[in-house]
Amino acid sequence: MNRLRQSLAQQIRSTSAIYRICDSFSARPGGLPLLLPRLGKRESTSLMSSALSTPEYLRPGMTFQPHYTDLQLDRAAILRKETGKLQEFISSPKAKTVIMHGGKCLVRPAETEPQQPEISLPIVADHQTAVQWEPVYMAPSSLAEILDERYQQLFLGVDPDGSPVFAAVVEKADEAAASAQQHGSCKTEWISVQDEGANVGAADAALLAYAGGLASWHGNHLFMGTTGQQSQPLLGGHSRGVGGTPTVFPRIDPAVIMMVTYGDWAVLGRQAKWPATRWSLLAGFVEIGESLEQAVVRESEEEAGVKIDIGSVRYHSSQPWPFPQSLMLGFMASVPLSEQDADWQSKGWDSKQGVPSAAEPEVEPPAFDRNDDELSDARWFHKDWLRNAHMKGAFAPGKEDFSLPGFEAQARRMIDSWMIDPHSPSSSSSASPSTDGDPSDLQELSTQHAANPIQDVHLDSGSFKYMRMRLRHIRKPGARPRRSPPRYVVRGLNSAEYHREVLRATRQEMDDGSFQVEPCGGGRIEHNPEQKTIRVFGYSVEYGQADHAETAKLLRKWYPLYNSIDISNEGY
């Protein structure tokens, strides 16, 4: 058993190895619940937090497939000019049409089974979503009396079975729904793909986004912009013009969406019209005459007052977005490090790629000036807090008032990949740590910290004494020495009459012998969870005054949704 633990402890450094271990034991009788008790505390925690909370689309070996991109059609663009062929398609008994009206699609309850999480353990990712809807298909011939002739049949392509697929805009929604029910659909609904895309299967979502975007474009170009003449659909619905001459063509609206980081911190914002708990990435449309990189820089400053380094802007991925015809272009970008934080690079820590939490006592992102006309709120969130916020039972104060966009959104996948992947492209460079000549030590330190269940902060509510303490790893006999920065924790207990009681309780908390607890001063804290405020002040007669500024940095990491975290060196 010791040999198994030693082997897994070595393999646990590799994310791909974690999944090989999971897959191996999942195939055995008893599965992962049989494996976990055989591991040490650190290995089992790391295995669950790193692997089981990882969305399937981000696991090693999985292809990154953004939602709305899994179109199972041959667009057959070469056939759009062949009017006779398109008429033949419309008359084909295999032809089928999706129905549109008022920017919505006609759907029915899905017949497929709801998706289930692969593994049922205490940590379960929240990206699993049941497929609720599937499009209603009707024969083109059955739509003749209710079709809006200004649109006609829009040719989308040919499916893998050789069936021509069209989209049609109808004039009367109730007649279309009634006709669909007559042709076998027992219950129908009109849905917005933008609102319900997460509840539609990947291939159907791509099809409906394609159809909806094309129909929306036609609705906005029913008349020629220069002459005012009514135009007609041409090229199977992929152009409009007068007199049979294609003149205008569908356009897309490019928008940038960016993951702006500062070490292991990321900017998230929210708009007033969103659900009360929703947070997401900064985003905005590209303007005429600017590059995508320039749009990232401009929108970041306009929305949140964040000044980023244009040289740090790196492409991540793209996604069609039914808004109704936008293209989301995802980028990673970073705020230039302050002189103080840049000093970490001289010590061998790669600050831009994300300073390990254990090495962050001095790192805090810069303040920014949010544009109230763009966002109702914008804040820095630490990677550790974001990870914990989406794991059941993990420490993340305020997570009940926090949510991210669904898995179908470009923003969610960018956030997930940044949280999970230690090599996410938050910068263009990668410094090698100088830790006794072993470049794997930085990754090992990050893994150990992520796997360690000890909380950085624990505060009671009310007014109480607190201690700031330093944890030092106790090197086990035979283990090689390793240069690593200390880790700091903050504890505040309203039951403690003296600061020494807080220190004693913390040492009891670390009773497994892994850490040595050293006092670094104390003070008082007033903590009001209802008003979301924390005030740090005062001193300890026994241990002196703690560095309240450093305490506040740690508190801001773990209480990102609080209204204020203030410090004062006055009082007792």
TrEMBL record:
The active site is at H499. It holds the Pfam family NUDIX. Residues 421-437 have a biased composition (Low complexity). Residues 250-408 form the Nudix hydrolase domain. Keywords: Hydrolase, Magnesium, Metal-binding, NAD. Its cofactor is Mg(2+). Substrate binds at K465. One of its GO terms (cellular component) is cytosol. Its EC number is 3.6.1.22. It is an enzyme of class 3 (hydrolase). GO terms for molecular function: metal ion binding; NADH pyrophosphatase activity. One of its GO terms (biological process) is NADP+ catabolic process. Residues 342-372, 419-443 are annotated as: Disordered. Belongs to the janus family. This is NAD(+) diphosphatase. It comes from Apatococcus lobatus. The lineage of its organism: Eukaryota, Viridiplantae, Chlorophyta, core chlorophytes, Trebouxiophyceae.
